């Protein structure tokens, strides 16, 4: 809603001024005239967002787990015959997510004023994904909002469970790496200089591993903070470059060509494409709109760009299976099955089955990669610890041999 400042003459003839919220100037004037006879001046207040909040901190995205719960609540309430406005108000009161509560509260006001639910979500829900909004819009247009929310519940529940499994599997290796880095840094900065200074005071000859360790320890002690600063600056520079068109495309393409991780990215993209398309088609969206929406929500920017390039071909009347041939990174099986579903008129069901298949393949590939990562991490840690022990004990053995 917009904010308007106004000056007016009240019913008793007094000059008054104030602020009113409305969707447009006509509605604002109507609200003012409920208490005043004449509106002498009205102007829209420019809403300037905080620069830091607008440019540096993007709107917080609502988690898929939360979207699954909310979609389930909407499906149950609307299926029970509760009006849309009442359903939005009830869910807004019950949710613990502050960002979602704010969105739903504003949406309830919009819907009560006569605006559509999807239109209100689109204008107020900056943290809501395009798939959510477009599915709601389709359900609203076809009069099957409860069914549309039911499909969204299934879609987001499935997606959130898959991501949760991957995160759970990654937790232990990441924890091990972080702890190892901290321990090694403490040893290099605190413990090693004490040992080595004692050996140097005794006049012991330093072997090569010990001299290498001294050099590393001196570097961490004197230039550690500067190195961290450079790494942070490089990370920020890469982050900013990755927000540009060329940078996003370059990093996405590099991700697809990485060993092991590239295969997982391709499988995940295939899963996203199939599941999102199935959900949107089941909600009643035309193929062209479904493809355009799917291209906007895919994680890998390179594949997303190729999916969006299919839209002009579809608008020319070409088949989806044929247009997909231009996507060099999507799996051949996905293209073939989409073409079969298109020819038999069962694309929605076919893509749902294919989506489940690629969900399983993504999970298996992730587990396999993590099973390979754990021994690699252990080997690297063993080499690091072995090198430090060798560098510390080598002078002691040299001194012992000299005494003998």
TrEMBL record:
Matching InterPro entries: GspF/PilC, T2SS_GspF_dom, T2SS_GspF_sf
Keywords tagged on the record: Cell inner membrane, Cell membrane, Membrane, Transmembrane, Transmembrane helix
Compartment(s) where it occurs, according to its Swiss-Prot or TrEMBL record: Cell inner membrane
A Pfam short name: T2SSF
Listed transmembrane segments: 171-200, 220-241, 376-400
Gene Ontology CC terms, in alphabetical order: plasma membrane
Major site of localization recorded for this protein: membrane
Membrane topology recorded in Swiss-Prot or TrEMBL: Multi-pass membrane protein
Keyword Transmembrane helix: yes
Domain Type II secretion system protein GspF: 72-193, 273-395
Family of the protein in this entry: Belongs to the GSP F family.
Protein name as catalogued: Type II secretion system F family protein
UniProt organism field: Oscillibacter hominis
